[in-house]
## 1
Amino acid sequence: MTTLAPERTIQPVSTPVRRPTSRSPVATAILLVGAAYCLLPVLWVLIASSKSGAELFSTFTFSPSTHLFDNIADLSAYRGGLFWRWMANTTLYAGVGGLLSTIVSAAAGYGLAKYTFIGKQATFNVLLAGVLVPSVVLAVPQYLLLAKLGLTNTYWAVLLPSIISPYGIYLARIYAAAAVPDDLVEAARTDGAGDFLIFRSIAVPLMAPGLVTVFLFQFVAIWNNFLLPYIMLGNDQLFPLTVGLSGLLNQGASQPSLYTSVVTGSLLSIVPLVALFLTLQRYWKVDLAAGAVKS
Amino acid sequence: MRRHIGLGLTAFAAAAALLLAGCSGSDEPAAEQGPKENVKLTFWTWAPNMDKVVATWNAAHPEIQVTVNKQDGGDPAVTKLLTAIKAGSGAPDVMQAEYQKIPTLVSADALADLTGKLDQGTAGHFPETVWKSVTLGTDAVYGVPQDSGPMQFYYRTDIFKQYGLQVPTTWDEYAQVARKLHAADPKKYLGTFSANDPGWFAGLAQQAGASWWSIDGESWSVSVDDEPTVKVADFWGGLVQDGVIDNKPMYTPEWNAALNNGTQVGWLSAIWAPGVLEGNAAATKGKWAMAPMPQWTPDQPATGNWGGSATSVTSQSKHPAEAAKFIEWLNTSPEAVTALAKVSGVYPSDQPGQAAALSAPPAFFANQPDFYPKAAEIAKTARSFTFGPNVNVAYSAYTDEFGKAAQAKSKAGFTAAIKAMQTTTLENLKSSGFSVK
């Protein structure tokens, strides 16, 4: 175990040793195509949300218009600013859910990596199996469970299932094994530190970069989650953005879909995600490098 | 880590408890509650601005407060309700239920029987065929009708004029106009056959005299492949095969674009079409007109229904009597019916209140002042149609089978699709344990 850990961290460092001599034009071309593939839809959303309802289906796809602010005003006016309530809800679900999930993942991952106990391997295997089960499959059973507790149609209905993330625990375990040296834990223990103190003051700071990753993953997963809140919630005051916007599209056959508002809403709903990534990716990068040096 | 095991165990225990409680969950007493406490009701609906209509009720009835929870339209809300019914909790008190979904909901025990809880005169507010969709021909009452969707033909007057086309009054004429228009400009179509809209096709079949389900005592029969439906399918199959009618589904961005740029020149739709046209093709205002459906037998004018819904009380409601009072007010009182029409934009089924509520034509059809009187005449010719407990199965069979047939543009495929729908629907009804003739 002690020898395994350093090896894992060395590997990523050894690959990016400088060899910038020749750039393959083919690789560049493939990457450019990939970038276009990812960015074109975003560009489409940006342009489409600048069009008025009449222009959306009648003007050329990529010719921008000037109605972005009108659209935002329309969307904000929809049923007394319900959209912003959805935005706040989503932030709550993703923020609190992501944070709690990170804490649980950190503790569980650290425990799995650093303690020996009976059934450890079995638990880890079950966890690995959990990574393979898509959360979509679990949504209906979770609904039935929470219905028994009378918690459906509350904030808890979305928060509670988001807290346990097998993938997050798995990542945290890998990261704890690599980033927290056993010697350090031993030394702290010799000095009389308790398990919780060691975890909080030594393990967590060392695992921080990994935990940022776990947080980001979980935050994005909850932010984009549709099925779980869709099944759990009946009250539109509790909806996250995904469910709320889908409701604007599915108005029933006898009502027109509010395409302009949905497109504008989609644009606004990715802004916080982009902002979060831009601010957090700094820590992410720095800490990956830091972890590498330590080993 | 240990926490995880613990959680797993809790989940397991809860699952076991769920299984045990499964049988006892549904028979919660729907009895009268203790006296004079304020009653809170939740109401799932997708009609726009319903909260504003309900605000009037809340202001006048502090003892029965209703909260509107807006839902995704149609199927999603029903699926959600059925899940909540199965789970034993989480369903609203009051629910918007499309007519075609009522048998499904009733067979899942999702709706409360309101017999004795409604005013004696309630039934008299509605046309007999509409009232029948909330009683299913039994003595029970599973809701109060809210809106109806009698079908009409909508067309672009400017383009009709440009090509010298006459408004078709029979289906033969409809086919001729479709051919003439498409020959004059191959980009333009008189309409499209939408494999995505089973409710639309059911309306067309209803107009021709079909009724896909029927019940005799306790046993159901399915007749999707009866003569009228086959006639309708053959008619559309022929037009699609010849390419004179488009084969793309409705309610897609592409279709919206076609409404805007005038390549879809007509739309066989229902009374709520003005709202959809206004939302999707606002620039075409004033260019549309409404006419009765083309007919199979001109001396016996008929139409079908596309859409329409009732307001029902769910079996989980603890206050069915108060809920019944509310839905009766919502769908039969003059003030609510007027608000439904004006604020919520629905076409109320309530006969006494309808004319007053719809005194002016929809804004998008200001050019047709007699829009609603004309529509009311048409609505009277709606034929009766019985829905069965597995409409969802029939409808998804429609989407699958006609999706293929429309894609292949084959008339034979249309006929085969009807047969396949019949088989799928019938087999499903049998395998779900219904008694079937």
Note: The CA atoms of residues 89 and 240 of chain A lie 5 Å apart.
## 2
Amino acid sequence: MKRFLLATSLMAASLSASAVAPGGDSCGWGNMFFDGQSGLPSHVIASITNGTSGNATFGMTSGTNGCSANGTLTYGGKSMIDMSSIMTEFSEDVARGHGDALTTVAVALNVEAEDRQVFDAVMHENFAVIFPSENVTAEDAMMSVLKVMKSDARLSKYAA
Amino acid sequence: MHRIFLLLSLLLLGGLSGFNVLADTGVASQPHYVELVKQKAATLRLSEEDTWRRLLHFRRDYFSATGVSSYVDDETYFYSDDGFFDAESELQATIDALFIEDGLDNQHAQCRFVYRFKWLTSQLKLDAAKMPAASCTDYAEWRAQVNAHSVSLIFPATALNSPSSMFGHTLLRFDPKDIEGGSDWLSYALNFGANINNDDNSVSFAFRGLAGGYPGVYNMMRYFEKIKEYNRMENRDIWEYKLNYTPEEVDLILTHVWELKDINFDYYFFDENCAFRLLELLELVRPEVNLTERFKLDAIPTNTVRAVVEEGLVESTYFRPSELAELHARINSLPKSIQRLGKELSNDIGMMDTPEFSTLSQEQKGEVVQIAYSYLRYEQLQIPRNEAMAKRSYQLLLALNKLSSKKVVVDRPDAPETGHKTITAGVSLGERNDDVFQQVNYRVTYHDLLDNEKGYLRGAQIILFNTEVRHYNDGGLKFNRFDVVDITSLSKRNMFLKPLSWKVQFGYERVYSRDEEVGVFQLNGGAGHSYELSDSVELFGILTGRIEHNKQFNSIIEPAIGVEAGLLYYSPIGTQKIDLSGSQFLNDDYRMRAEFAQNFNLGVDHALRLSLAQEWHNDDDFYDISLGYRYYF
């Protein structure tokens, strides 16, 4: 997560009211698309020892640096898995209409196997709705995904 | 003392048919039951069991009073003050802790040490009714989340130009049931690595990483974080080995993983590293499997993968190519003239309006747009977010949304464990300057440019501790060379990618200098370019620098600059290399060398190597030829 540190000022402006500072200041759903490398020297260090720098999570709800491992975005009253770090991959898959990130989001939203093709197709058709510009945040995009699902007969039950 | 205690407890039990009977009489108040349990544990010598020792991560240790000590470097892992080296004392203290009546929440021994509790319960037939009942909500929540049915060993392989990935890495992935119908991106990955302080500079790091100054900890995250880290950020292919562990065994592994949450181990780069720690977990629940025994001195991830395969633990293998490999495959699927359009489009979105682009078929347009997008993403790796690039990326996605692109297929290379083994020893016969010699050589690890490329990354040479000793018929026994480190990384440049190739070497070697063979200490390195001329031929050129300590020279350290150029041909019988190099020293001495070398692969773990070299040093010139046999083990 350390590599996705982004300008916090940019993200703060676009947070919607439905989520409470998801993931903390420097990580999580506020991420913008088409992110780059933060260039921390600790990246090299971390990769030699296969380590992490100060963000040892354990699959639990919260990591040690205040970065939420599970996000505080909710839908249907349940907290959502933090997929913010793969939102750029997701955008590419939505554009094409296929890919692992697209499947991942479908599974995370509990979309049943028989509805996945519909999910892929509906996402694909609504690319420009979900991603209206390059400055959309991961959270905005996720909210749009749910909105698009709600207005689809087959998918609405997953976004209740 | 101990023996008397044992005797007493045996006597006490003599007339009873079993512990549970005694317990059930109700005579025993709670402290009494604890004592009985502890006595039974001592009688059964439970602390000598393999499982208990593995749970405590014990190893042989000649400096320890008990002859063993734990790899764990964290006092919170032990209830007994002597738990670090005394298995019995820790067992007794653990039993005490399991019976503590206060603080029956997540910090209770029953919640923190779930495997210990489970194991002791079954070994000692503990009666739950006579024990305090702790409420382990954290553990329950965690297990609900890490809902695992099977486990895979994950091996992100080496990548060129990423020295930090030198030997690869291993981690475990826990998959839920029916992962084929779900998404393995959402599975949990268990990683063991150093916990690094961000403020450290890299010199301090290098030292501490190797010498063991960082605590190693386990952490878990969604597997997509790892895919992102390796497949994308580091351009490393990932090999995934699904293990044939049953759901029950997987459950047990996780039970112990929980015990290791936030527990510090010392992290050493070479031996007590990621790979070693994972082997311990795999052994714990399969007592008949002996993995860690194989790795006394070093645990190179490739070798641990090989060990796991050899022990018959692997059910199936899956290859997950890096994003860069996918980009390469996409580019290569198009004719050269069209490839160029992808590059241009990544720089200028207006390209889509040119006739060149509009005459392409719909499918080709999709591929070109996809290549342009993927290439921008690749470029984005090195730099922070950039408005112009983000805008172009977005516009490309809009275009891709109307065109779509195919799912790319990357040819699966030979799996890393099918390659040659990592220690090399050899004997050879040769002649240098009219003097016949016999040579033995030994390399601790890992792969040179000429070794059989099967299972290894082309163009990546990593040598540590390479020794050559020669016996000359006229000149006697000579220590010919000792390379501490000798790394070469040849990343090919093409229309899209412009990586640097580089090399660095440090060690002792015998050279001909001013009419005499002398031993010198030297450090050399360089950077340059390499290109692929065809599928099996590569060309490289490097500018080099060298410093040398040579008693023939007046100065303590003499610098030199030079060039090296070479051609590598990956022929069906083995790799061939032609290499020309020259160095000019500041003191006007010079050296040049031309070499033709050919490796003849004899299966995977045997090879013959021929080397024909000619050298020029100031006014002298002579040859050095040899033919040798190499064995990899």
Note: Chain A has one domain: 2-159.
